[in-house]
């Protein structure tokens, strides 16, 4: 998926970045992604910036998890 957000909606967990079920990383990524998104919403001035930061931080983690 090219982008995990549009407007005021951001995809999280399996909706945005479903890892392979073989790795067992679904729950880990769900918790980490939720934690990061909540932190960025609290830190950033608006939701657009928060969503960009969330994706920037999560994409490398998701990419690594998919390679396991």
Helix content: 55-70%
Instruction: Report on the biggest sheet.
Output: 2 strands, antiparallel
Number of helices: 3
Taking strands numbered 1, 2, ... along the chain, how are they ordered across the largest sheet? 1-2
Distance between the termini: 19 Å
Would you kindly provide a written description of the structure presented here, covering whatever features stand out?
The chain is mainly alpha-helical and 68 residues long. The chain has a domain at 21-67. 63% of the residues lie in helices and 6% in strands. It is built from three helices and two strands; from the N terminus they run E-E-H-H-H. It has helices spanning 14-17, 26-43, 47-67, and strands at 5-6, 9-10. Strands 1-2 form a two-stranded antiparallel sheet. Strand 1 (5-6) and strand 2 (9-10) form a beta hairpin. It is elongated. The model has no long low-confidence stretch (mean pLDDT 88).
Q: Which descriptors would you attach to this protein?
A:
mainly alpha; 68 residues; 6% strand
């Amino acid at each position: 998926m090219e982008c995990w957000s549009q407007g005021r909606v951001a995809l999280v967990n399996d909706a945005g970045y479903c890892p392979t079920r073989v790795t067992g990383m679904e729950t880990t990524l769900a918790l980490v992604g939720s934690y990061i998104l909540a932190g960025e919403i609290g830190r950033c001035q608006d939701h657009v910036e928060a969503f960009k930061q969330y994706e920037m931080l999560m994409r490398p983690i998701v990419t690594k998890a998919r390679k396991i």
